[in-house]
Amino acid sequence: MINQPKTAETHKQRGSQTASPSIAEGIIVGDYRFLRCIGHGSQAEMWEAVHCDDDSLRVAIKVFDLNNVKNWNGFDLLFNEAATLRELSIDGVPRYHDFISLPPMFFLVQCYIDAPSLQARLDNGFRPLPDAICDILRQLATILVELHERDVPIIHRDIKPGNILINDDNRVWLIDFGIVADDLQESSGSTMAGTVGYMAPEQLVGEVSPAADMYSLGATMAYLFSGVAPGKMETKGLMIDLDKYLSDSTPSWFRQIIADLLNPYPEKRLSSARQLLRRLENDRKLTQEELEATYGVSTNAKSEREKRRTTVSVERRTQDNIFDRIETLKERKARVERLKGMISGFGTLILIVLFFLFLYYTRGK
Ligand SMILES: Nc1ncnc2c1ncn2[C@@H]1O[C@H](COP(=O)(O)OP(=O)(O)O)[C@@H](O)[C@H]1O
Ligand SMILES: [Mg+2]
Fold first, then answer.
1. Which residue(s) pair with 181 in the sheet?
2. Alpha carbon nearest to ligand 1 atom 18, residue
């Protein structure tokens, strides 16, 4: 265990000397000071940290330590996640900031999102109403439109409540891009990656396509409506037996959407995020009254959308602002380093000149 070294340099030295170095509160790596561990995975730890020059710049850092893993798969995952996040600048996905290599440790720095995971909230008794579930699904579908409709689609492959962050206003972020794949890998994809219960049947045999993410979305929705994790649900053939888990309080249109998302055959599945958004808009409009009658909830969709739009744009500005400020600090540091380099180069030059002058005068005498 490292005893709170004060600088990255100290950390670097200790990292290479200690058999099993690990991060602790107060450690400084690069420009960031570690505050607290916010999550443990089998391969990496997630930490909250702040920028050393500005405490208000909060980041989340995924730490991978070659000394503390049974195999090096996690290394690949971290690089894959870093490469993907670096490409993305969309609402609902934390912004990439930095990747720091201090072998045997590696650090992926991203924007800190002040929200627990959906899994953590479900574990604490969160039981959203259909209207809120619809809103969560709409936000996730919007993120998937961005990912799936890129020139080379990005497929997340591990959508589940543990990889979704959700704040008190039910604003949603998708995280953990370690096992993302691009559509080009379809023909060669043979490794199984994902979480049992959320994985589409074709994903079990390594097929990669946007439809697999849509299945995971369906499984997540079934969990939200029933409170039962999909891995524990009984199946009828290849299909989750939804009748057993979705009570009559689940609006019929929503039940149909979930069934269409969970269709075991990708070609028959509701497999396009954009199509799902359209269905949510259209189907929901038809049953507004049904919802209000059943739950006594005013779905006042327009004002909800307005509210969401405002929070999304504030959130986007916050992420952009943090990103810009970190970039400015980086540039300032780089300028100082360049200046230092110039000064030391100039100093060396003066020393050389002085040395030759000295030689010249001593020889002259
Ligand atoms: N950008 C972030 N901001 C705040 N917390 C985060 C962020 N990313 C992840 N977390 C927290 O860390 C946990 C683990 O992150 P995740 O990327 O899913 O790692 P793992 O690969 O270990 O599953 C999440 O469940 C969440 O609570
Ligand atoms: Mg995860």
1. 155
2. 176
Of 2-16, 40-54, 120-134, 295-309, minimum mean pLDDT range:
2-16
Ligand 1: distance of its center to the CA of 302 in Å? Answer: 32
Q: Taking the CA of residue 361 as centre, how many other CA atoms within 13 Å lie in the half-sphere pointing to its CB? A: 5
CA dist 29 and 52 (Å) reads 9
Considering the domain delimited by 2-111, tell me its CATH architecture.
Answer: 2-Layer Sandwich (3.30)
Question: For ligand 1, is residue 113 a contact (CB within 6 Å)?
Answer: yes
Instruction: Tell me what pLDDT residue 233 has.
Output: 96
**Encoded amino acid at 26, one letter:** G
Ligand 1 atom showing the smallest separation from residue 116 Cα: 27
Cα(330)–Cα(337) distance, integer angstroms: 10
- State the distance from the centre of ligand 2 to the C-alpha of 41, rounded, in angstroms: 7
Q: Which residues pair with 60 in a beta bridge?
A: 48, 110
Ligand 1 center to residue 231 CA distance, Å? 21
- The residues spanned by each domain of the chain are 2-111, 118-300
Task: Measure the CA–CA gap between 212 and 199, rounded to whole angstroms.
Answer: 7
Question: How far is Cα 222 from Cα 263, in angstroms, rounded to an integer?
Answer: 13
Look at 25-29, 83-87, 247-251 and tell me which has the smallest mean pLDDT: 247-251
